[in-house]
Amino acid sequence: MEKSVDILDLNNNRITVYLEGFPIAFGNALRRLVLSDVPTMAIDYVYFYDNDTSVYDEIIAHRLGLLVLKSDEAIHKYDSPENCAGKSETDTSCYVQVVLEKELSNDTTNGIYVKASDLKFSDASVKPAYPDTPIVYLAPGQRIHLVAYARLGRGREHGKWSPASASILQYTTLVDVNGKNATDECIECVSYYKEVANSLKARENTTIEYKTNINTSGLRYCEESSCKDIIKVRYDSSKLLLTVESNGSLEPPQIILEASNSLDRRVEGLLEKIEKVSNT
Question: What is the pTM of this model?
Answer without folding.
Answer: 0.87
